[in-house]
Write a structure and sequence with these properties.
The protein is of the alpha+beta class. The protein has helices spanning about 20-35, 40-45, 45-50, 60, 85-90, 90-95, 120-125, 140-145, 170-180, and strands at about 10-15, 70-75, 100-110, 115-120, 155-160, 190, 195-200, 205-220. Bound molecules: adenosine-2'-5'-diphosphate.
């Protein structure tokens, strides 16, 4: 009998160190607390609540994920296409358990998710699987996504609204980047952390004045 193949994980990614996780959660929660008090946000509240006059507490609205991380490859225990090939890459094997610093350059809020955009370095791009940006993207959005630089989907999911899966963060981020590229940015509001812009249908994008960095470890994760 052949030796049993090593099992593939649920996903690979950069995991924030526990103390970094706390720091990022605090900083980003402060942003949420401010966002739902802004007049510009209140004008579009119905996109979150379904009703114009209702208030929303964004801190309650989003549920925190267990461990903050930036997924590189979703393997689904080997069911995802290219999972085995990715796990066998030399650069992946060499990077496991290594420390790395991630740079968060923007925060996004939609009625579905709360997330952080990650700007990957050239070295980090080596761990970003080719074609991963396009995984699960709706056909209508595909041409816009293909026009974005590789790694545009890199992010940390900070929260999901009830019934929404974390995979939505990357998809909403791509949609926002595509709209920005088409010049479809609306209202802009200056905030302490940076410039907030509105992109229709409850989509908000905060470009950080200063990137937020976070120390991480590259690792695989299985439930
Ligand atoms: P994300 O990386 O956007 O946070 P789950 O707990 O839903 O099984 O997902 C585990 C992790 O894998 C999450 O971080 C999630 O989203 C990511 N993920 C789940 N499904 C996919 C997918 N189809 N493509 C890419 N990433 C996924």
């Amino acid at each position: 009998t052949k030796p049993k193949e090593p099992e593939l994980p649920l996903f690979f990614g950069w995991f924030l160190l526990p103390e970094e996780e706390e720091r990022i959660k605090c900083a980003t929660m402060d942003f949420l607390k401010t966002l739902d008090t802004l007049e510009a946000f209140k004008e579009h509240i119905s996109e979150f609540t379904g009703e114009a006059e209702k208030e929303v507490d964004l801190e309650q609205y989003f549920q925190n994920p267990l461990h903050l991380h930036c997924t590189t490859k979703f393997c689904d225990y080997g069911k995802a296409e290219g999972a085995k090939e990715y796990a066998e890459l030399q650069v992946v094997k060499e990077s496991l358990a290594k420390s790395d610093e991630l740079s968060v350059t923007a925060l996004i809020v939609t009625p579905r998710i709360f997330g952080a955009r990650v700007a990957l370095t050239e070295t980090q791009m080596k761990l970003w699987p080719e074609g991963e940006d396009k995984e699960g993207v709706a056909p209508a959005l595909m041409p816009s996504v293909e026009a974005l630089p590789m790694g545009s989907r890199a992010h940390v999911t900070l929260g999901c609204s009830a019934g929404v899966e974390a995979v939505q963060t990357g998809l909403d981020l791509l949609e926002i980047l595509a709209l920005q590229k088409e010049g479809k940015e609306g209202t802009q509001v200056e905030m302490d952390l940076g410039t907030l812009s509105y992109l229709s249908e409850g989509r908000w994008f905060l470009t950080l004045r200063e990137p937020i960095t976070a120390d991480t470890t590259f690792s695989s994760f299985s439930d």
